[in-house]
Amino acid sequence: MKKIENIDNSDSHLRVRDHSGLKYLLRKEFKQLIRNKFLPKLIFIFPFMVLMVFPWAASYEIKNLNISVVDNDHSTYSKQLTQKIISSNYFRLTNVSPNYGKALKSIEENKSDLILEIPTNFEKDIVNRQGAKVLISSNAVNGMKGGIGMTYLVSIVNDFNVGLMQKLLPIAGINNTLSTIQIDTQYRFNPHLNYRVFMVPALMVMILTLLCGFLPAVSIVFEKELGTMEQINVSPVPKSIFILAKLIPFWVIGFIVITIGFLIAWSIYGLVPAGHFSTIYLFTAIYILAVSGLGIVISNYAATLQQAMFIVFFFMLVYIMMSGLYTPIDSMPEWAKWIAAFNPLKHFMEVMRSVYLKGSNPMQMTKQLFALIGFAVFFNSWAVLSYRKNQ
Amino acid sequence: MNKPNKDIAIHCDSVSKNYKKVEALKNICFDVKRGEIFGLIGPDGAGKTTLFRILTTLILPDRGMASVDSFDVVKDYKEIRKCVGYMPGRFSLYQDLTVEENLNFFATVFGTTVVENYELIKDIYQQIEPFKTRRAGKLSGGMKQKLALSCALIHKPSVLFLDEPTTGVDPVSRKEFWGMLQKLKTKGITILVSTPYMDEAVLCDRIALIQNGQFLKIDTPKSIVTQYQNKLWAVESDKMHKLLIDLRGNEMTRNCFAFGDKIHISSPLNPTKGDLKTFDKNKIEEIILNNGHKNVIISEIEPSIEDCFMQLSQK
């Protein structure tokens, strides 16, 4: 970006009207943008879709798991356990199978997700204090669902276990020895582990990336393909002014859209950043510079709209996968963490989540701040260098 | 640096340009005088557009130097961009802006206004003015061309570059277009125009015949035609394809090409080698009739630029 200003300054003493050139180019850009049948609608529908539909649809909280119970005991305790599971609201009893094989069949037919097998003599073993066992099997084709279902079921069985012990060992002394360690779980910053609280700030990053990074790239390549860029190139307008005129409208749109994002987060999800808005705007400005730099790099290499779209698609996909939007970076292998470290989305998502959930200020996020500034410098220098090479 | 010559608008000195291994331009040397209509005549892929792109500072030459209005295309590209008008072969205006908006936009891009130079474009622009609120993308081919020319002229350029302006334009509009160029010439604008149509060549003051990145000849159209050294006949018969093969098979044939619905056949005026004889009309007729053709028409004709081009390109 510095480069652009330099050219601008060096020209301004030669031609007084260069600034007006930018003005007219901008006027043209906005005119075209408004006249475009498709783009303005997309620009505003896209954030609404992403922020309003997606967080409601996607949730890690899994309800209505189908469970198949194989009760070989048919005792009071086995019935109590089954009842406890059903009344938890997480499980739906699909069938009571006579044996494990039949239950497995129902998993294969996709009728149930989990099997709970209660062995014969379940109640007898408990009463005799020999310790009873139950078998839990889970369909792990969808690993997430299987794992979560398993966890729920284990905790219900544990709960049942504790209840039994208290009933069977009513003596205070023994009761004490049983519960030496009591665990109280507290989730900081997102007490209810609400998925939406976690997702909405990060989704805003995705929207900004598309609007400020990739749309200008496509717009520049479009002029390249139409040949209008050549017409500008044979005019006294410096290329830097031309690109600046391409970027500014999308910067403006970026800030408008992120503000709309704040409003949606507040009105629909009741989300207000714990930190300060100015922190977000500061990081947004740096981030927009970084991604629009990337956009110019793409536009320098792509000769046709088709190429540009494909490169955009490639970057978008890799960046989102490696951003920690869905899967935490910390659970990735070491090499993947390194890839993620070179992803501007990752850093800005961390910032957004930190400000929204923890109320971090820029001083606490110097790592991300320098990373994003680094990206801005890197992409924009690359943009300038690759443009020179092309000429 | 060459001495600034006020009478030379475009100067090229051994300009070469390669695209990877393809030599697009080889040692191009030529001068265009101020106020001249200079035509680049050659087939597709001859290097015309490459030369235009070098002169309009869009690409750099690999070797050699070129100047427009005494400004070097490499060093003083900024000055050149202020004083030239360029109309590329493909329509490259903003299709989603109206006629008027396009014109205003290009005027402001060059730091001027439509009013300032309206006199120059008046004749051309008046024809499309009734459609000034229509989007450029919705104009017909001829109107698009007029708009493109208006936009290229709006800043009163001293040199105008027109890259195949009449390709894909109907014959009436083509004629009209050349009329407009003649008018612009009277206003002192130097015009470098390229075309694949040989019949347009005679409308230029001077032409350069270009093929495979090389100039075959630079001269006035008239002088190129008078330098044609062969006798030329136009031949017709009922079996045109066989006729072409039969004539080409003859040893006395110098060149033989299909020209529309006729075949042009040439043979040397002054044969240098003993075995090479000159045709005369009877001789041709004899050959043709011996090959079983009917409805034969033979007439001696004056060479056109195209005949000259064919002859030169065969060397």
The gist of it:
Chain A has helices at 2-12, 18-35, 39-57, 76-86, 100-108, 122-127, 143-168, 172-178, 195-226, 228-233, 239-269, 277-301, 305-321, 334-341, 344-358, 366-390, and strands spanning 65-71, 91-97, 114-118, 135-138. Chain A is mostly helical and 391 residues long.
Strand content of chain A: 5-15%
Helicity level of chain A: 55-70%
What is the SS-derived class of chain B?
Answer: alpha/beta
Total of DSSP H or I helical runs spanning 4+ residues of chain B: 10
The order of strands across the largest sheet of chain B is: 6-7-8-3-9-10
Name of the top-level CATH class of the largest domain in chain B: Alpha Beta
What does this structure look like?
The complex is a heterodimer of chains A (391) and B (315). By secondary structure, chain A is mostly helical. Chain A has 2 domains: 2-58 and 193-390, no CATH class; 65-178, 3-Layer(aba) Sandwich (abc type-2 transporter like fold). Chain A is built from 16 helices and 4 strands. A 4-stranded mixed β-sheet of chain A has the order 2-1-3-4, with helices on both faces. The longest helix of chain A has 32 residues, at 195-226. Chain A is elongated. Mean pLDDT of chain A is 84; it is low at 1-18. With 315 residues, chain B is an alpha/beta fold. Chain B folds into 2 domains: 8-223, 3-Layer(aba) Sandwich (Rossmann fold), CATH 3.40.50.300; 228-314, Alpha-Beta Plaits. Chain B contains 10 helices and 14 strands. Chain B has a 6-stranded mixed β-sheet with strand order 6-7-8-3-9-10, with helices on both faces. In chain B, strand 7, helix 6 (171-186) and strand 8 form a beta-alpha-beta unit. In chain B, helix 3 (99-109) runs parallel beside helix 5 (141-153) and helix 4 runs antiparallel to helix 5. Chain A binds chain B through residues 14-15, 17, 20-21, 24-25, 28, 31-32, 35-36, 226-228, 230-237, 391, and chain B through 56-60, 78, 81-82, 84, 86, 88, 90-97, 101, 105-106, 108-111, 151.
